[in-house]
Amino acid sequence: MRRDGSRPMERSVPVQSLPEDDFDENPGMAVKYDRIGDTYDRTRRADPRIADRLVSLLESVPGASVLDIGCGTGNYTSALAKRGLTMVGLDLSRTMLAMARAKHPRLPLVCADGAALPFAGGAFAHAVTTLAIHHMADLTAVFSSVRRMVAKGGRYVIFSAFPEQLEAYWLGHYFPSMMTAAVCACPSRSAVDKALSAAGFRLAGLEPWDVPPDPVDMFLYAGKDRPELYHDEGLRNGISSFREFASAEVADGLARLRADLDSGRWEAIRARAEQGRGDYCFLVAE
User: Fold this and answer.
1) CA distances (Å), 264 to each of 214, 229, 268, 270, in order?
2) 268, 244, 242, 238: which is closest to 254 by C-alpha?
3) Cα–Cα distances in Å, from 53 out to 133, 209, 225, 284?
4) Read out DSSP for 208-276?
5) Backbone φ and ψ of 69, nearest 5°
6) Per-residue pLDDT reduced to its tens digit, 187-230
7) Is the alpha carbon torsion for 19, 21, 23, 25 positive or negative?
8) For residues 121 and 148, what is the distance between their CA atoms, to the nearest angstrom?
9) Lowest mean pLDDT among 116-120, 122-126, 194-198, 219-223
């Protein structure tokens, strides 16, 4: 239910109406996603707290159709479907989608570029993107495409992090080059605001979110309070920043982290990382 009392349009998207995976993909981007995708799903799961908040922020009705842009291996697509939404997942990586189809054979999934969504205008009541806008080369193009897909009165909910949040992670003490690259790859709030506005969206809300002590989804800062997790190579391989940016400094960074954990010095470094702005955030666009 909208604040003005209206309801977002509820639409179903029949599986048989989905487009075939025959788009002219961007080879460079596809290779990047496939490289991350080959190990991504070993440590990544939908965190129920994030999934619950996504559903709440959509303010939707049961059965409403929602497009998940950058769905990866379908973890959050499936989680939202289990919460009563009619979900369709979309991603650029065939590798990730193959994993998603193996786990969720009944989940509608499409391989396509978010900047050229292959659906009719207004086909979905809402849209979501979870931890993926930092992979989008042209936010305005993607957001404009999403805006065309979302019916009047619908919402687009994004879960991501801003550069100032990333800059506060204690990971920067041990992996400075990786975190500098991650910050540079992450769009600023002003860039997101500008792209949303240019696409015809209005930013209706911004909600900080802190990593809980027991995260389920092992994304970049999942080890905020469990630093020993980063010594697990399998976990690091499921995090795009470690896969893309950290190879040259991993051994040294892990050695220094281990030494600080053994000496107790890490606690002081962790304490300095508190900045009160949230580790990630939900953005709500209308």
Assistant:
1) 21, 17, 8, 11
2) 242
3) 18, 10, 22, 11
4) EEPPPSS-SS--TTTTTT-GGGGG-HHHHHTSHHHHHH-TTTHHHHHHHHHHHHHHTTHHHHHHHT--S
5) -90, 125
6) 999 999 999 999 999 999 999 999 999 999 999 999 999 999 99
7) positive
8) 5
9) 116-120
pTM of the model: 0.88
| Residues paired with residue 203 on neighbouring β-strands, in sequence order | 285
What does DSSP assign to residue 124?
Answer: B
Neighbours of 14 (CB within 10 A): 8
User: Which residues, 6 or more positions from 251, have their beta carbon under 8 angstroms from its beta carbon?
Assistant: none
How high does pLDDT run on average in the chain?
Answer: 88
The radius of gyration of the chain's CA atoms, rounded to the nearest angstrom, is 19
75-82 helix and 48-58 helix, angle to the nearest 10 degrees: 60
Q: Which residue has the tokens 């509608």?
A: 108
Alpha-carbon distances of 194 from 116, 125, 152, 189, 265, rounded to whole Å: 19, 23, 20, 8, 41
Q: Cβ(80)–Cβ(74) under 8 Å?
A: no
- Burial (0-12, 13-18, 19+ Cβ within 10 Å), 121: exposed
Helix axis angle for 139-149 and 189-199, nearest 10°, is 40
